[in-house]
Amino acid sequence: MKSLEYSLTDYEHHEYHPEWDNWTLRDVAEQGCLLVLGQLADKFGVGGLVQARFVERWLAKEPWGGNDEDERQLNFMGSLPKPYRLNQICRPLFRDPAGRRQLEDAALLPPNNKIVYGDTETTVLDIRMINGEGTAGEDLDHFLVESTRPRRGQSSEEEDLRRRHREAMVLNDGSRPFARGDIIERER
Prior knowledge:
Elements: H1 2-10, H2 28-44, H3 47-51, H4 54-57, H5 69-79, H6 87-95, H7 97-105, E1 114-117, E2 120-123, H8 156-164, E3 166-170, E4 183-187
Antiparallel strand pairs: 1-2, 3-4
């Protein structure tokens, strides 16, 4: 943690950009610390990060763009579904109740997950996933992952069996775009 705190002032951090990950622009020492923390969080959970106050001591001091709190929150929440390297740490923190509380305290998430769009107020858990079924808050353990709802007329056990035994081939000569009819599935 101390090494990450030193990295906050060691070099000039690049501002948040919604289109690209600034991982490659980070200092090598900072990248190494974040990689180790990400692996530890993956193996042992985020309890150590919460206890070390990672959010308060480092994550909240990252440049998330914007001068006001609302824009910082929107930028942070907008970065969560993206394949950024830092999300190896941020997503588990978001899923963990104590981590989420620290994110709220650091003003990276709105208090009680309340977001105001114009005149309406909604919660993070009410936001519809783009091209998804259900809402992002149906199951926080599977946040930002496609819905695993079984097909019509199938129980979840049948769906699991079908998924485990599925084989598929895609046949397309390249003269036209891929279509659903190009996929031939064979179940064992």
